[in-house]
Each structure stands twice: as structure tokens, then as C-alpha cells.
Amino acid sequence: MKPNLQFDFIVDKENSQLTLRREFLANRPLVWDCYTKSELLNQWFAPKPLNTKTKSMEFKEGGHWHYAMVDPNGTEYWGYTEYVTIKPIDFYTSLDTFSNEKGEINMELPRAKWKVSFADHGEKTLVELLVQYNSLNDLEAVIQMGMEQGMTMTLENLDLLLVRLQQQQ
Amino acid sequence: MRRDIFQAIADPTRRAIITLIALQAMTPNAIAEHFDSTRQAVSKHLRILTECELVQQEQKGREIYYQLKIEKMKEIDKWLEQFRTIWESRFNQLDNLIVSLKKKK
Q1: Is A147 within 8 Å of chain B by CB?
Q2: Interface ipTM
Q3: Given strand A64-70, what is the order of strands in its sheet?
Q4: Are A100 and A80 in contact (CB under 8 A)?
Q5: Which B positions 66-105 lie with beta carbon below 8 A of chain A?
Q6: Cβ of A11 under 8 Å from any chain B Cβ?
Q7: What is the dihedral of CA A116, A121, A123, A127, to 10 degrees?
Q8: Do residues B15 and B83 make contact, with C-beta atoms less than 8 angstroms apart?
Q9: In chain A, helix, strand, coil percent, each to 5?
Q10: Can you give the pTM of this predicted structure?
Q11: What's B31's DSSP letter?
């Protein structure tokens, strides 16, 4: 079976806002868990070739997720997400920031407000991510850092992944 | 001060100027007519846009025309395309995870 999953990537440059919509082939509770449990986030959140490692997580309003994305050389890039509003299994809002290993937020780097919503889509689940930056410059900075961290995935990698997915079905 | 594409589109008046001259090259006077701001303010924005290499001037007779360098606008899309790739990578990994979680059940 070839997965045919909706993926929208909408950029609102005027308002420095990104909207991502993606379908997943699973029911809502499972997808919710993938976004809100550290042992599951660890398995997908950092884009290849990076790995995710969680230092601490408290998924509750006012709680946080303190994590690092680790590149193949072992360099760690720390992030700190503060959870603002949580309404299981409909949506949560959070503040996405860069930090250090101690969990001190780096105020010099861009911060973004996230709203992550989950909806039933037949047998699939539709996740909508609203990412709001202060300015387009912030967005550019984030992309630039992403590039430096090697957060690229070649088409070749994607093809391999698709082949593996198909074999598993 | 930084002079790049992102600086160019950071200001609403500059974005409006870009939209205007995307259709056709215009003189500074013709551009200024579309705005309430002073001619000087519009000139300043045009200067910044020129420094950001987003517009270029062309002399036609006694008039100077400003025109948009379309290929420069594509730089933004290039950046955004990379961001999109990052998310594609993430989501593909989540697909993988979901497949393995469902198998365990």
C-alpha cells in the first residue's frame, strides 16, 4: 500500500505564520500520544539525521518539554517548549524556544507560538500546526539554523523511507 | 544594517511597492501617488529595496523606472522550501513510528 496522506504547507508572509496540515494513518488517541509523550516524541521529532533526547517533560498546563536534538557528531541543540493550554485530545498550545542544557531559554533566538490541533479524518487523523513567529526574520533565522544543523533530507532518503514503509505494510 | 530579501519585505509599505511594480516598471513619482506617505519616505523605501537588490533602476529618457527583480523574490521560496523539507522528514518519521506502534498492538 502506498500511503497517500494529505500534507499542506501554507505560508502567510504578511503575518509571519505557518500552517501545516498533515494526515496520519492512525486514530486520534494514538497520534495525540505521539505528540505528547516524550518516549514517543524521542522517536520522531528530530528530523534526520538528528536524534531526539528528552531531559525532562511534564505534559500539563504550565509544564514543559526540555529536549535536545543530537547530530551524528554528538553535538546537542537544546530546545524548551512551554505548554500553555491543553485540551486532550483536541489541541494544545505551547511556546517553542531554544535553550541550553540547563533549560535556560535563549531570548536572542526566535520564539514561536504553536497551536497543535487534532481532528478525526475518517480512519485517519488530521493534525494542524499553527506556528506564529514575531517576524519573517525570525522564521529565516530558524531555517538558517536548521540548515547548519544538517536538517536536510535528500530525496534519496525519502525514497528509501517510502520503500521501507511499503515493505512493512 | 542588514540588506537582504527579508529586510526588504519586513515593511508593509515596501511590500505594497513590490506588489505595485511587480506588474510594471514605474517611476518614483508614479509609485508615490499610490501612498499617503511623503515622496521622501517612498524614496527611502525604494533606496532600501535597491540596496536589498530586489529592484533595479532603468533610465528611460529623462525618467528613472524601478522594476522588480523577480528571481530575487524566489529566494524566500527557497528558504521556505527547506523548512518544508524539515517538516516532511519529521512527519515521515512519525508515519514510521505509527506503523510500528500499530504492529505492537
Answers
A1: yes
A2: 0.74
A3: A7-12, A17-24, A124-133, A112-121, A91-98, A76-87, A64-70, A51-57
A4: no
A5: 76, 79-80, 82-103
A6: yes
A7: -20
A8: no
A9: 25, 40, 35
A10: 0.70
A11: H
Copy the grid coordinates of residue A83.
Answer: 505548554
Residues 6+ apart with CB under 8 A from B50: B56, B57, B66
Q: Grid coordinates in use for A163?
A: 520503500
C-alpha distances in angstroms, A150 versus A74, A131, B83? 13, 21, 12
Q: Cβ contact (<8 Å) for B83 and A18?
A: yes
Q: Any bridge partners for residue A121, and if so which?
A: A124
pLDDT digits (tens, 9 = 90+) for A22-77: 999 889 999 999 999 999 999 899 887 888 999 999 999 999 999 998 888 888 88
Cβ distance of B90 and A139 shorter than 8 Å: no
In the numeric block, the cell 525570525 is attached to: A138
Which set of grid coordinates corresponds to residue B55? 529592484
| Residue A136 sits at the chain B interface (C-beta within 8 Å) | yes
- Considering only alpha carbons, which residue of chain A is nearest residue B6? A137
Residue B36 touches chain A, beta carbons under 8 Å: no
